[in-house]
Amino acid sequence: MTKQFRTEIIAVGTELLLGQIANTNAQWMSEKLAAIGMNVFHHSVVGDNLQRVKEQFQHSKNRADVIIVTGGLGPTEDDLTREAFQKIVKRDIIEHRPSMEKIEAFYRKQKSKMTPNNRKQARVFTGADVIENNVGMAPGMIVSENDTTWIFLPGVPREMKQMMSDNVMPYLQQLTGESSVIKSTMLRFIGIGESQLEDELSDIIQNQSNPTIAPLAQSEGIAIRLTAKANTQEEATNLISKTKQQIQAKVGDHMYGADEQTIEENVFALLKAQNKHIGAAESLTGGMFTEKLIAVEGASKVCLGGLVCYDTNVKENVLHISPETIRQYGTVSDECAAEMSRNICTLLDSDIGISFTGAAGPDSVEGHPPGTVFIAVYDSSKVSIARKFTFQGSRQTIRKKATLKGFELLYNLLK
Where do the coiled-coil regions begin and end (predicted)? Predict the structure, then answer.
């Protein structure tokens, strides 16, 4: 029978509390732990202060069976994880010779002098299972103390992930006796809100058991996480596939991919398959659309370029928007957006043109309140669409929503 463990993740680092970096480690670890059936009860973040780290460790050990600590294993004075734990368990700290030799070899190879404080990175607790750091210096440790398992890992994400994948996950699976397979996949949707998606799938969600269905609102659209538990990988895959087919039958028109797929990758694939090239004329989005598209590997095969035409004079003199169009309809209009998409096709000799114009805020533009956006798509086969949208949020949020909507319009046109 599988034993249930209360698990907690502690991140040590003042930079996390100051918001200088995001605590992505905890998110990644929680996902991996859930896949082997381990329940994460708490995420905690504590700054680089010896007393506060000690207090957090004391509090956590009273409520958790497995405690994973990231950060505070480096060479500087504010790396205090070992010292705080020692005050609780009274274990000796010794130098781990294999790790020290690795650190020394690194500095020899770099032909640079190793400062004395780097020896601190090789220090481990007596009786600990030492985890080799294959991508960095400081080793990790697994320490069993009074029925609590402590796992200490570096805070650097790539170092932590290597140790978790190679050493910690197999150890925890053996510890818990978990033998079943837990598999998750994300289905990604665009052009549909979270409430509408839940309403469309209400009968499936209400009758869910295995796999479970969890709708999630994300910055790049809506996603559904399907999680299946089974005796084998094949069985879990089949369970997910069956539910996925049921979901596609109801809202498949809005589904553009799964797992790590992005809408821009799908648009790129469609453009490439149809041997079409695209150019963008961006006022409101200021190059955001083009930047996302060219971030896709191989984008040069489909993206000829883009023009940021923020100023009215640039629209007229570079993109050759008719002064009459601007005089009669303004730069924030269906008519101007449509002409922008057509003219960028001519200017770049592309098959498809897309344009963005509007008022991102905080002020109104030409009488249009912030959030008013016009997007047009022109295809050289004479297919042309121009749409008006009203988005809510900050200036940056409106620009991001407009960019995402542009990809949605393109995706629907191309597919």
Answer: none
